[in-house]
Write a structure and sequence with these properties.
This protein has about 150 residues and is mainly α. It is about 85% helix and about 0% strand.
């Protein structure tokens, strides 16, 4: 049985020399054209992938730049806001001092005129005003702490 099996190295008696060669050429032409087509398709796909990679790199670079610009702008705005909040605190402090001084002046004037009852009403108003100023300062501190 081993004698009946033929492998590619055993000599085979050709029936016709031109027949197998012609068939081989017919078989290689479609294979060659298919290989060429596949190679072209592969090259095209690789080119597309390369272009997509470049586009992605470009997009990432632009995005990184945009994020950096926004962060810088945000940082600048935050510094400006903090400066303005600090200025407002100073102004509120000055206003409080001025109001207290005016209250003391009015109290002294009323005392000299002998109107003590009015002084008590002014003291109550002053306390309410001070509480409002302190509440505003506390709100500003809380908002600043959030950011």
């Amino acid at each position: 049985m081993a004698d009946q099996t033929s492998d590619s190295t055993s000599p085979v008696a050709p029936l016709s020399v031109s027949s197998p060669t012609a068939t081989k050429k017919d078989n290689t032409n479609p294979v060659d054209s298919k290989l060429t087509e596949l190679n072209e398709s592969r090259a095209e796909l690789l080119n597309r992938i390369q272009n997509l990679k470049q586009d992605l790199q470009s997009w990432r670079g632009k995005l990184d730049t945009q994020v950096k610009v926004y962060r810088e702008e945000l940082s600048g705005l935050k510094q400006t806001l903090n400066l303005e909040v600090e200025q407002l605190r100073e102004e509120f402090k000055d206003l409080k001092t001025t109001l207290n001084q005016q209250q003391d002046d009015v109290s002294a004037s009323l005392k000299s005129l002998g109107l003590q009852d009015s002084k008590e009403q002014i003291d109550k108003r002053s306390e309410v005003t001070e509480e409002k100023v302190e509440a505003l300062s506390t709100d500003d501190n809380a908002k600043e702490a959030e950011h």
